[in-house]
């Protein structure tokens, strides 16, 4: 228990230090970053929310962005901003393969793959249909896996250095009531990411690819707009633009880690070490189950 408390306090300090670093202490963009003019990035679910904020930041750096989504972006980009949209449901491997063939025909050399697409359904388990939970798993988990499986050979063959970023969620670590499918899909994403990172370390060309896992709390987007924030102090929402900035910063600095935002996400792995009654008490205290039960 002493070790647990020490680790929790240490993670709180690290999180706050990172959050309140003064701007003039931040490093300049490294010269060896992959995010430069001529680079090409694929962003699934890039037409809105976090995905769109990432696209905006990448295009400001003259990175060509290929968006895969079921709807087009809800903003207009400037003529000089290179944005290519493919209407693609990533839960269909046939659609993913078709987009892949089109990209290869364009001779685009992908240096960044961001698996961001996701859907959810806030319902009690006994009220969910098999089709609803199947669709969540197919988009959030199998779809992301299919993107990696399809584009990984190109990433390894065409680049000296590239990145795969997987957007998971704190709900893949500790899931509240009524988000069974979403929590399960994000837990699967976390497991796939860890396995991928380990596999690349033992692969001949694996050193070319860096991986970044993003475990985030509730983001201020339309996905969870019907779910109230249980506590703005204990579990504050995170602004998608700020999260996009942190993701770009990690890529710029060649970091391979798990980006956990906001601060409380750093504490969840340690809370999971507690016995079940204490976890139930923490869930009740945080209000997470009540928030998804309204």
UniProtKB/TrEMBL annotation:
User: Which InterPro entries does the protein's record reference?
Assistant: NAD(P)-bd_dom_sf (IPR036291), Sc_DH/Rdtase_CS (IPR020904), SDR_fam (IPR002347)
Give the UniProt keywords, A-Z: NADP, Oxidoreductase
Write the signal peptide boundaries: none
Which residue windows are coiled coil?
none
Q: Which GO terms describe its molecular function?
A: oxidoreductase activity, acting on the CH-OH group of donors, NAD or NADP as acceptor
- Is Nucleotide-binding among the key words of this record? no
The cross-references to SUPFAM superfamilies, in alphabetical order and at most eight, read:
NAD(P)-binding Rossmann-fold domains
Q: Sorted alphabetically, which PANTHER family does this protein's record hold?
A: PKSB (PTHR24322), RETINOL DEHYDROGENASE 10 (PTHR24322:SF736)
Q: State the similarity comment.
A: Belongs to the short-chain dehydrogenases/reductases (SDR) family.
Q: What is this protein called?
A: Uncharacterized protein
Question: Which organism's genome codes for this protein?
Answer: Naumovozyma dairenensis (strain ATCC 10597 / BCRC 20456 / CBS 421 / NBRC 0211 / NRRL Y-12639)
Q: What is the lineage of its organism?
A: Eukaryota, Fungi, Dikarya, Ascomycota, Saccharomycotina
- What's the encoding gene here? NDAI0B03360
């Amino acid at each position: 228990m002493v070790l647990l408390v020490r680790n929790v306090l240490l993670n709180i300090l690290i999180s706050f230090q990172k959050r309140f670093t003064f701007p003039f202490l931040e490093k300049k963009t490294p010269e060896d970053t992959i995010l430069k003019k001529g680079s090409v990035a694929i962003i699934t679910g890039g037409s809105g929310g976090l995905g769109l904020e990432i696209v905006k930041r990448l295009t400001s750096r003259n990175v060509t962005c290929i968006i895969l989504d079921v709807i087009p972006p809800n903003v207009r980009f400037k003529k000089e901003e290179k944005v290519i949209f493919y209407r693609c449901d990533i839960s269909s491997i046939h659609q993913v393969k078709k987009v892949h063939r089109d990209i290869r025909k364009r001779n685009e050399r992908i240096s960044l793959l961001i698996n961001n697409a996701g859907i959810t359904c806030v319902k009690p388990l006994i009220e969910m249909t098999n089709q609803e939970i199947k669709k969540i798993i197919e988009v959030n988990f199998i779809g992301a896996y299919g993107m990696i499986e399809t584009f990984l050979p190109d990433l390894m063959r065409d680049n000296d250095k590239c990145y795969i970023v997987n957007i998971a969620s704190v709900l893949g670590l500790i899931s509240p009531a009524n988000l069974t499918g979403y929590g399960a899909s994000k837990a699967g994403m976390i497991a796939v990411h860890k396995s991928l990172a380990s596999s690349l370390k033992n692969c001949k060309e694996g050193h070319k690819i860096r991986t970044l896992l993003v475990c985030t709390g509730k983001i201020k987007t339309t996905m969870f707009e019907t779910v109230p924030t249980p506590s703005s102090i204990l579990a504050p929402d995170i602004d998608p633009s700020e999260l996009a900035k942190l993701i770009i910063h990690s890529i710029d600095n060649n970091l391979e880690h798990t980006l956990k935002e906001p601060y409380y996400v750093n504490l969840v792995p340690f809370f999971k070490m507690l016995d079940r009654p204490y976890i139930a008490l923490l869930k009740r205290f945080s209000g997470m189950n009540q928030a998804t039960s309204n």
